[in-house]
Amino acid sequence: xxxxxxxxxxxxxxLEVKAELSADTVAVLGxxxxxxxxxxETIAGLRxxxxxxxxxxxERVMDTGEGFRxxxxxxxxxxxxxxxxxxPHLDVRDNVRFGMARKNGAPLFQEAVGIxxxxxxxxxxxxxxxxxxxxxxxLARAIATEPRLLLLDEPLAAVDPALRGRILPYLLRVRExxxxxxxxxxxxxxxxxxVAQAAIVLRGGVLAxxxxxxxxxxxxxxVDPEARFxxxxxxxLESSDGSGQTASLKVGASRFSxxxxxxxxxxxxxxxxxxxxxxxxxxxxxxxxxxRNVRAGRVVSVETAGADAWIRISAAGVEWxxxxxxxxxxxxxxxxxxxxxxxxxxQAFRRLR
Amino acid sequence: MEAPSDVSILLLTxxxxxIATLAILPFGILFAWRLSRRAGPGRTLAETALSLPLVLxxxxxxxxxxxALRRSGxxxxxxxGMGIEVLFTWKAxxxxxAVMSFPLLVRPARTAFEDVDPRLLxxxxxxxxxxxxxFRRVALPLAWRGLLSGTLLAFSRALGEFGATIMIAGxxxxxxxxxxxxxxxxxxxxxxxxxxxxxxxxxxxxFAIVWTSEIVTRRRSRRTEA
Lengths: 353, 226
What we know:
The complex is a heterodimer of chains A (353) and B (226).
Chain A: E1 2-9, E2 14-21, E3 25-29, H1 36-44, E4 51-56, E5 59-63, E6 77-80, H2 92-97, H3 105-116, H4 131-143, E7 149-153, H5 168-177, E8 182-185, H6 189-195, E9 198-203, E10 206-212, H7 213-223, E11 231-238, E12 246-251, E13 254-259, E14 268-274, E15 280-282, E16 293-305, E17 308-315, E18 318-325, H8 326-332, E19 339-344, E20 350-351
Parallel strand pairs in A: 3-8, 3-9, 6-7, 7-8
Antiparallel strand pairs in A: 1-2, 1-4, 4-5, 9-10, 11-12, 11-14, 12-13, 14-20, 15-19, 16-17, 16-19, 17-18
Helix pairs in contact in A: 3-4
Chain B: H1 6-37, H2 41-55, H3 58-69, H4 74-81, H5 90-114, H6 118-126, H7 131-160, H8 163-169, H9 179-188, H10 192-218
Helix pairs in contact in B: 1-5, 1-7, 2-5, 3-8, 5-7, 5-8, 6-7, 7-10, 9-10
């Protein structure tokens, strides 16, 4: 339960966001420059000119109408900015410890280090870390302060499809183990879908939409040219088959063939991404196909945008987003309710880490 | 009266310069920190006033100090009431060098603080630290090179101060005579060789200090380099 009703004058426009969200995990969507980072900074108390009221699970974070404007150090908000903002003069260990209270320090430190898998990095300095590693350290540093809310700003670099250094798998773990409410800024609809129960969409500083993640993603596709609509699958990775070339990812009751990974770290919880371009759609049963994952499904929705057609297909307990050319979608006469088959190569599953 | 040896002149000079530098260090750092965090006309005014000792004739600064320290002057009356005698003692040398060195400490320190990413300071606050803790745990460690360089500059300026010193401390051998004053006096009475010896010492000393300062500011720590 997060209530936001804030205003902040910015150079190009005024940020004005009023939303009552019944969820604890919220995705913040919208194009670059729509005020997403400013919203996070307002909540963290880093914008002195901000006014308004924010509550988390009924607790007031700020309420300037009542003269309640605590400084950032009294807000207990864990902020993970886009560029991580690690202290360059401290090693990873001291960065994580920076905001920790003296009491019950050790177990909390160990927990943060464990969840974010940064034990091997503890002695290193931020300048020697990759972008993804920095994000993980920044998230560890934030949760080590026992915040009542996390604010995460996805790095812009994460929009690039190389998938290196995504914070998402770790955020899912934080959600599972600690249950801290969070606001997560992302351009990736697929990520929003797996991690957040609710979402808001900003556009030009104004709230364009607030509601369920699914509905918000529809609104987002209209306003964010950088938006990505990856299929994100979170499941249990089971050991490789005999050949050692593919492994099995169990999502709900379904299993998918994914590329095998070397080493023991392969097994366990894993998050994979499949680009919407990599999902093949057929209107007849597929036979003799090289793709390892062929499933029957049903069209949920069809949307066209320019030369593209975005098809949502429910198959094997997962809702898939497929991007086709509009002419291909027309030729197949895809429409909601139609029975279809999808095919996804094992190689199209790429692990987020 | 026997003229003091080169060594005793050097020791007096080092002692006075060290005391002056240590005395202005906390004020200078705090002042630099304040300047680096503020904007607006007040800041420009403060910076201009601060830079005056750099551009005024040192004798003018000395005369202003002399006026203030006279028994009838505002500061003089206060000090006299406390039984503290400053004029024409080693304390006057400390005061003169402190005033003249202050801007040389503050300017590099201010630049060093300005180079600290304000977002890191904001991050420190968000992680639960108050303004002073952020200053101590983030700003100071990130700015230490500039602070050290400013300190060394102020110290070397203090070693060579002449004009303001002679106005309020005179040139009393063994009491207020620093190297700069001794060089002047020896040349004046025709002991050029003895004066040159002192010049040699000051050149070596200043070279060592400035060289250290250069190394400190040039060598960027490997770990903080992006």
